[in-house]
Amino acid sequence: MRRESIDMRIGELSRRTGVSTRSLRYYEQQGLLRAERAANGYRDYAESAVIRAANIQGLLRAGLTVDDIREPLDTGCLNEPLGQLPLCEGALQTATDRLDELDRRIGALRQLRERLAEQVTRTRNALAANERN
Questions:
Q1: Within a 10 A sphere around the Cβ of 59, how many other Cβ atoms?
Q2: Which of the listed residues 9, 62, 105, 110 has the most CB atoms within 10 Å of its CB?
Q3: Rounded-to-integer distance, Cα 29 and Cα 27, Å
Q4: What is the pLDDT of residues 24-42, one digit of tens each?
Q5: φ/ψ (deg, to 5) at 61
Q6: Contact at 8 Å (CB) between 24 and 13?
């Protein structure tokens, strides 16, 4: 197997993907993205990092977590643009589980909002009653 050439620094990867350098460093820290270190300590990325970084960012924006993304990375499921990937084992279940969790959180937030709205109404009514008296 031929080793992929390493020739891109973090600033160029950021420009090509729209992912901030801070996020790229975070992805690396979390084991989602790999960089070689040059003799001067700079991070050098392979060309494949462009697709991988963009995919990671897209999945995080869609609501998945770093842990959700880690497994497909290990199987090579994020090395091609998301629209061209074969279905990764477990990907649908992971996304469904995350969606269910978001639905539970939204439901809890709606209940909290209703309680707060009721409290605001009671407080306004009490203030209005006090002003009339």
A1: 21
A2: 9
A3: 5
A4: 999 999 999 988 888 888 8
A5: -65, -30
A6: yes
